[in-house]
Amino acid sequence: MTDYNYKNFKTKFYDLANFPGPKAGEKLIDLHLYDINGKQVMLSGFLDKPIVLETGSITCPMYAKCIPKMENLKDKFPNVGFLLIYVREAHPGERTTEHRTLKQKINLATKTKKLYGENRVILIDNLNGDFHLQYGGLPDMLYIINTEGTVVFRGDWNNPAKVSEVLSTLNKNRIITEEHFEPAKPNPFIMLKALSQGGFIAIWDLIKGIPGLLKLHKKANEAYK
After folding, report:
1. Nearest by Cα to 224 from 133, 156, 150, 174
2. Of the residues 57, 97, 118, 190, which has the maximum number of CB atoms within 10 A of its CB?
3. Is residue 110 helix, strand or coil?
């Protein structure tokens, strides 16, 4: 990716058939992140209990659609830590531009918490996207990491039903190698709510990109057969 914080969404910035980063059974990559107050923290500092981390941004419909189900899982599994890692804008536009400063990115993470009623701990990636890129670079990916720092499951797209299944057997230290999931489409209201945060440009960029997105998903499905 030549331009991590892209100004406009284009399918060329994604390769859905390629999922780099620590695989199930491997150790986490411990990196610096920022909390909502701008304080620098380490991912390993949250391993007093197993963690479920999902990536997202205020303009990402795929993240926004999962929030209610992830909130239910947070209540169902109180001994698990649930984290949102705020990454680049999936669909920037004239209202919410690409990230230009870390302060802007932290402010958007704060706005996300209020807009969507996000109750998970929010951590913010740095401006260069070091966490995002080293963990896979996908817009709504998910990792489950145990207290030893081992990845026990990951998904290229968040699949809350599968997350619930994995967490239900987490005490058995199972390693789940399945990692590709066909994402469910968000309902039109959620999609419009997220895209409107970017603005008209964000909506138009997605419309233009639909044929390319369909090709990307088809390629990914074929790669994982």
Report:
1. 156
2. 57
3. helix
Would you say 132 and 20 are in contact if contact means Cβ atoms under 8 Å apart? no
Burial of 222 (0-12, 13-18, 19+ CB in 10 A): exposed
Question: Confidence class of residue 2 from pLDDT cuts 50, 70 and 90?
Answer: low
CA 223 – CA 225 distance, rounded (Å) = 6
**Residue 56 pLDDT greater than 60, yes or no:** yes
β partners of residue 121: 83
Q: List the one residue out of 98, 53, 62 whose CA is nearest residue 194.
A: 62
Whether the pLDDT of residue 188 is over 90: the answer is yes
Give CA–CA dist 53/123, Å, rounded. 10
In angstroms, the CA 172 to CA 68 distance is 27
Write down all domains in the chain, each with its CATH number in brackets: 11-223 (3.40.30.10)
d(CA 31, CA 29): 6
Helix or strand or coil: residue 86? strand
Tokens of 158: 């968040």
Q: How does pLDDT run across 95-132, given as a tens digit for each residue?
A: 999 999 999 999 999 999 999 999 999 999 999 999 99
The two beta strands, 142-145 and 151-155, are: antiparallel
Residue 150, beta-bridge partner list: 27
E-state strands within the chain: 32-34, 40-42, 51-56, 81-86, 121-124, 142-145, 151-155
Q: Is-contact 100 69, C-beta < 8 A?
A: no
pTM summary value: 0.96
**Torsion angle of alpha carbons 131, 37, 40, 148, nearest 10°?**
-70
